[in-house]
Amino acid sequence: MSPSESPVAPAIPPTGLSVELGRDRPIRLDCGAELGPIMVAYQTYGRLNADKSNAILICHALTGDHYVADPHPITGKPGWWSELVGPGRVFDTDRYFLICSNVLGGCMGTTGPMEINPATGQPWGLSFPVITIGDMVQVQARLVDFLGIDQLFCVVGGSMGGMQVLEWVHTYPERVFSAIPIASAARHSAQNIAFHEVGRQAIMADPDWRDGNYLLEGTRPHRGLAVARMAAHITYLSEPALHQKFGRNLQNRDKVAYGFDADFQVESYLRHQGSTFVDRFDANSYLYITRAMDYFDLAAENGGTLANAFRGARTRFCIVSFTSDWLFPTPESRAVVHALNAVAANVSFVEIKSDKGHDAFLLDEPEFHATLTGFLEGAAAHRGLPRPGAAVVGRSQP
Amino acid sequence: MMVINGNLRVDLRLIADMVEPGSRVLDVGCGEGALLAWLGRNKNVDGRGIELSMAGVSAAVSHGLSVIQGDADTDLKDYPSGAFDYVILSQTLQATYAPKTVLTHMLRIGRRAIVSFPNFGHWRVRLHLLLRGAMPVTDTMAYEWYDTPNIHFCTIRDFLSLCRGLGITVERSIPLDRLGKVLPLPNCDGAANLFADQGLFVLSRQG
């Protein structure tokens, strides 16, 4: 029984697109297991041009999804990059064809631990194989194959999405004309692994986690997942951002209550972040995807020299970091720049001044958006993509 | 002292004219990328830039140029040997921590290096120091000693002596006035060292 024929009603309302991949040729995972067929949920914006040269693959971050510019089906909130997508915007839908898929191991429609294992008819849970960033990218490449696209005009993503961008260039250099890894790194640092471990332990310490079998046992480890989200959320901000937003302001009271309710606004805010997150995210997915990030180390995969990962790549790179991002600080981006310089790759690198921390890549940062627009413009000129509205005029000229 | 000529400062235009069409160029301290943009547009050059200021990098990348944030002292060592036809360092050598290392890297990375810098041997500088006994502040050296980014001033003679020491061939040596125009001076170091506000040099590795 394929997942699409599964008797279990899909948790996700049927917006967006979905495709079954790997029926004839299973996905060979880094851990050695084979997976297939799998479902991949994705979304597209704009139109693919005749020679299929205008496709941009957007890679989402840890808790992101393929609803880049659509209202989220569960929360109803605007898509996570909706301000960047549309006619005349950074990712101009009059010019580019945008693709974003929910990652392997995710919980928004792509095969992951929450979905039904066709072999058993039960949710995968912890029997789902451990996946890597490389596995996610391999699945994305299958989707791009399915869409009939040989070369992507651009692969772009922030944070874990940026890891996927780097993996794309490493694995499929000839398929990536330009690449924009944002607020990312070529390996997950010890500190970042440590934060992820705190999150995982919080989930696994929740009695409702039931050794990962909560879906079968009818419980949900909401408390553990909420704590994981609260801890992680702090790492996405910055001290100045937290200070500006909350300071030591109290929540609906004039003085501290000498108890453990949320006295401070920042506590109340974090609790809210945690409690809303559990409505839209699966705890086991969180374990699997954080693990995939922890395992990511492009230098180690290439004999300990990061430059080897990009040798021969003709991709045009634009690397972006943010001054106040302490989760993926600028030196991580700079290490990638140095590696690319060492193989004389075509690379731009901008550190954007922002006090918004790691999350800056999701927020309104005009200088960041101008950088993206300018880089895409330059890359489009080199790729020979006409400006919107210019193609017809160009053809009519003698 | 910005003189625009075909949208390019005259001294940059002079450099641009030296670059062969279709070549690979690394512009170190490229600012907002005016030279790179001109070279890309007019000479089909594959150009890259390094710039220290965040505003400069941001403007350059927003114009579609391949520019990284970095500086000559720390970032040149990463590039492989022979990656470029030209490595350009305009008005920046005197602001580096290790000019000798920078120069060595430039000629390792590039087949040729194009270097310009303000000449501390100019007669006005000498006179300033002689008569006033104070650090000279001129059009080409517009800072007071306590806030200048220029930490390694040299004369044209000093520079040529360093090139000799490093076994660098000086292919062309062009004396410039303070506006960046070529000075019609006799082809001898002494005259240039006395009368040129700036020196512009095309260098290559010996042998």
UniProtKB/TrEMBL annotation, chain A:
Residues noted as binding substrate in the record, renumbered to the chain: 229, 359
Active site: 159, 325, 358
Catalyses which reaction(s): L-homoserine + acetyl-CoA = O-acetyl-L-homoserine + CoA
Any single GO BP term: methionine biosynthetic process
Protein keywords: Acyltransferase, Amino-acid biosynthesis, Cytoplasm, Methionine biosynthesis, Transferase
Pathway in which this enzyme or protein is active: Amino-acid biosynthesis; L-methionine biosynthesis via de novo pathway; O-acetyl-L-homoserine from L-homoserine: step 1/1
Cellular component terms per the entry's GO annotation: cytoplasm
NCBIfam families recorded: homoserO_Ac_trn, PRK00175.1
Record's protein name: Homoserine O-acetyltransferase
Record lineage: Bacteria, Pseudomonadati, Pseudomonadota, Alphaproteobacteria, Rhodospirillales
Gene name as annotated: metX
UniProtKB/TrEMBL annotation, chain B:
One Pfam family recorded for the sequence: MetW
Matching CDD domains: AdoMet_MTases (cd02440)
Residue intervals passing through the bilayer: none
InterPro entries registered for this protein in UniProt: Methionine_synth_MetW, SAM-dependent_MTases_sf
Domain of life where this protein originates: Bacteria
Listed name of the protein: Methionine biosynthesis protein MetW
Organism per entry: Paramagnetospirillum marisnigri
